[in-house]
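batch_manifest entry 22 of 60
target: YCII-related domain-containing protein
source organism: Alloacidobacterium dinghuense
requested by: lab member K.T.
priority: normal
notes from requester: please return tokens only, no post-processing; we will run our own comparison against the previous entry in this batch. if the run fails, retry once and flag.
--- input ---
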Amino acid sequence: MRFLIIYKPDHRAPCGPENMEEMEKRVDEAMKSGALLATGGLVPEGVKVRRKEGAVTITDGPYAEAKEMVAGFALFELESMEVAVESSKDFLRYAGDGECEIRPLMEGSRFADRD
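--- output ---
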């Protein structure tokens, strides 16, 4: 299964430079194994594009509060949600305080079932 893992840091406890080397090593290992398909950090600027009742609005953002900031993402191919949870727990040991939101991707017939 594919999982999108979204990281939201606790801004009071950012990842320190002492952990970056180990985190980079683990990212490289996960990429080489094929489990990690893509990853990246996100800058705190952007826009929201919203459509409601046919009207489109664009607002600066995308965050109403700093605690909502998404700092990064990772796209994994893993065996189960349990493995995704363990991967997230491992990541947080190096990233520092914050949270990871794990979202399974709809694929194949699961996507077709939405109709």
